[in-house]
Amino acid sequence: MQRSSSLVLTTESRLRAALWGYFAGDALASPSHWYYGGFPQIKRDYGKIEDYTQPVYELTGSILNKSNLNGGGRRKATSKDQPQSIIGYVINHGKQDLWSPSKSIHYHATLQKGENTLEVQLARVLMKSIVASQGVFNPDHFREAYINFMMTAGSHNDTYASTCHRMFFANLVYGKLPPKDCPDDDGHNVETIDGLVLPTIVALAVGARSNGTLAQAADMASACADVTRKSNVLHQAAGAWGKLVFQSVQPSTLDMKSTLQETAASLGFRKPNGNGRDELTACYLGSAMPALLDSLAKYNPNPDSKSSTWHALLANANTGGENVHRGSCLGAVLGSQEGLERMETVSPQLMTGLHDFESLRVEIDDFVAAVTTSAKATSLK
């Protein structure tokens, strides 16, 4: 991979900034998540988003009231054999009333300013799992940690849980399937950009190791996606994304243009366009991933300009649509290119404004220490 030599950052600087950018991209965008009216709709509820903002409680047009509490997709009648819904009793404890057909609640109504959504809270679980596994991703360890976290009341504060989680726990609790067999696919809502959120962390871990390889990053990112979802399309996309993330934390400066083009070509997407407007998309990979690559091309930090990860993530927050999971993926790669030193100088609020800043700082320290000192073999068990 060709790289420019104008700026050299250490792997640790890139990794730390990637993680802060990852958490920030999610939290900044949560107020405007799934605002398909774009900026005009965002402006009505918040004005222009210029900092971490608490989501509104009610959201006109929210489809939370149409979503299935017991599995994928839209709401269905509860069976006699399912006296308690998955949402409210098995996961997202106590939140079932917020999904009521008679209400129109924001998808993240219960989050505080700067607080992360469920998918990124799961990334914290994944980071701790990697630390406990001596800096290496272990699918079995993470699967157990995932189940324990999701089934523990009060483990997170989010309102929404995506289709993949609802299907997984329906298979576990109602279907009584072994945990390895619980990932599922409804044919519509699983091959989505939120499926790249957890693999990003795994690819960062592999990229930070002195003995990590591009192939390992791809394989382990795909394996991470497979823990919660069953999709060949997502498996492939996670592998391609894992390669990009791996390269982003290497010490030499990434040739972003060629790397983005290679990623797009490997998945059959058009060439990324860094000169267009920020595209509002739904969650599906076919539209959401090209838009993510466009944003990376457009906002790649330039040390000689005023561009920054913070600037890019605010633009994403003010775009609407499926911007939360795009935000975390965008923040990770842009953060890695900016580096910790510049991030701390240009936009310290990106870090300190996060709701769980102090806890995140400790977790990032632990994760960085584990993955940068690990030299274990990375073959999957």
UniProtKB/TrEMBL annotation:
PANTHER family to which the protein is assigned, alphabetical: ADP-RIBOSYLGLYCOHYDROLASE
Source organism of the structure: Phaeodactylum tricornutum (strain CCAP 1055/1)
Pfam families listed in its UniProt record: ADP_ribosyl_GH
Name under which the protein is recorded: ADP-ribosylglycohydrolase
Gene3D superfamilies: ADP-ribosylation/Crystallin J1 (1.10.4080.10)
